[in-house]
Amino acid sequence: MARIAGVDLPRNKTVEYGLTAIYGVGLFTSRKICAQLGIDLKKKCDDLTEEEQGKIRHVLEDEYSVEGQLRAETTLNIKRLQDIGCYRGTRHMKHLPARGQRTRTNARTRKGPKKTVANKKK
């Protein structure tokens, strides 16, 4: 089993899609890495040699911030926005969409499940 950047790559997927299991690596980056190293995109993750795995690890460490490093960077950016008290920071604090989406309807991903409010008794 291939283990890169602390993530076990799925055995049955191709390298092209398997690398996307790593946080911070999308399909474009995955294809770019494979082209740079000359790895066949249709090769299964299980069939990667130790040498190829080492090359992929090396490229990810040197050229990209992935997994823990990227998560920490993102968290620090959001924390900075909250500390300076800007609009986006306050939206993050209130768990509401930060990029101008409507909230009267929808926005369930950010707001969570509905919280029903009871009617007043007469």
UniProtKB/TrEMBL annotation:
Q: Which GO terms describe its biological process?
A: translation
Q: Where is this region: Disordered?
A: 92-122
Entry keyword Ion transport: no
SUPFAM superfamilies recorded for this chain?
S13-like H2TH domain
Cross-referenced Pfam families: Ribosomal_S13
- Note the Gene3D superfamilies from the entry: 1.10.8.50, 30s ribosomal protein s13, domain 2
List GO terms (cellular component aspect).
cytosol; small ribosomal subunit
Asked if rRNA-binding is a keyword of the record, the answer is yes
Single annotated GO MF: rRNA binding
Annotated keywords: Ribonucleoprotein, Ribosomal protein, RNA-binding, rRNA-binding, tRNA-binding
Family under the similarity heading: Belongs to the universal ribosomal protein uS13 family.
Function of the protein? Located at the top of the head of the 30S subunit, it contacts several helices of the 16S rRNA. In the 70S ribosome it contacts the 23S rRNA (bridge B1a) and protein L5 of the 50S subunit (bridge B1b), connecting the 2 subunits; these bridges are implicated in subunit movement. Contacts the tRNAs in the A and P-sites.
Q: How does it assemble?
A: Part of the 30S ribosomal subunit. Forms a loose heterodimer with protein S19. Forms two bridges to the 50S subunit in the 70S ribosome.
**Which protein, by its recorded name, is this?**
Small ribosomal subunit protein uS13
Give the species.
Hallerella succinigenes
The taxonomy runs:
Bacteria, Pseudomonadati, Fibrobacterota, Fibrobacteria, Fibrobacterales
